[in-house]
Amino acid sequence: MYFSSLNEPENTSTSGILESTSNGWRTMWKDDGTDYPALLNDFLAGKLDSEEFKSDYSTSVHQVNALGRRFIFKHYYKLEPRREKRLWHRMAGTFYSRIFKITQKAVQRGCTNAQEIFLVTEQFQGPYSKEVWLIAEYIEGSPLGGHPLELWREKVFRTIAHIHQCGMASNDLHPHNMILTPDNEIKLIDVSINSPVIICQMKDLVRLRRHFGDEPPFKEILLSTPGRRFLYSMVRTRDWFRRTVRRLQGKRKDGRKKSQA
Fold first, then answer.
1. Cβ of 28: how many Cβ atoms within 10 Å?
2. 19-42 tens-digit pLDDT
3. Can you tell me the distance from the alpha carbon of 63 to that of 49, in angstroms, rounded to the nearest whole number?
4. Structure confidence at residue 35 (pLDDT)
5. Mean pLDDT within 78-104
6. What are the beta bridge partners of residue 180?
7. 75/65 Cα distance (integer angstroms)
8. If you average pLDDT over each of 127-131, 207-211, 234-238, which comes out highest?
9. How many of the other CB atoms lie within 10 Å of CB of 207?
10. Which strands, in side-by-side order, build the sheet including 186-188?
11. Burial 162-175 (b: 16+ CB within 10 A, else e)
């Protein structure tokens, strides 16, 4: 087991977060009275009721029932291939540990509309994370992509405004990463903050325009300075360029679609 000799928490570098190292792994978990490292140990030992949602070359996802609750357990086992992202992670903190800290700060600020993360444990290759386990909140409901989007546009806008106000973003904003809960609230899952939060927030605005055909009323608040408006225009231009290149790559050199060959 990865955590069979887990030491007592060494420090609390961020408010509400415990941290320790053991057997080559660095572990951070929410200080709410739950022994999340022990919970992961029990899962790895096959002691918990679970259901596999996904398994591929880089990721596995399970729903786990424990302590009278349901959790999402994710296992990532692929080193980030992009050099620029590895450089950013080296400067700003590894990907999942940084998302964990940002999410915890947002929760402390009152954020209720994003999937909470309870534990992140990472094994490193040099300064880079090569394997990660993550325990996250299970959110009851169904992806918004299965519902008429026009009926939920205003609520989506309010949800994103709330999340941005709490200091976080999605950075992978599309209807299938939004869960419509039984009480008709919208919660974001699979947050992917892989660059400065302000840039990720700008990307959220671009995605809202793409998926919902409009920009939210709070855009003017977020873009209250010339610098922020310039950054937004740069992000929109980059998004347009990338989508244009992808469309062109979907065609053969003679201009016909590959499926027409």
1. 26
2. 999 888 999 999 999 999 999 999
3. 9
4. 97
5. 76
6. 142, 186
7. 17
8. 234-238
9. 19
10. 142-143, 178-180, 186-188
11. bbbebebbbbbbeb
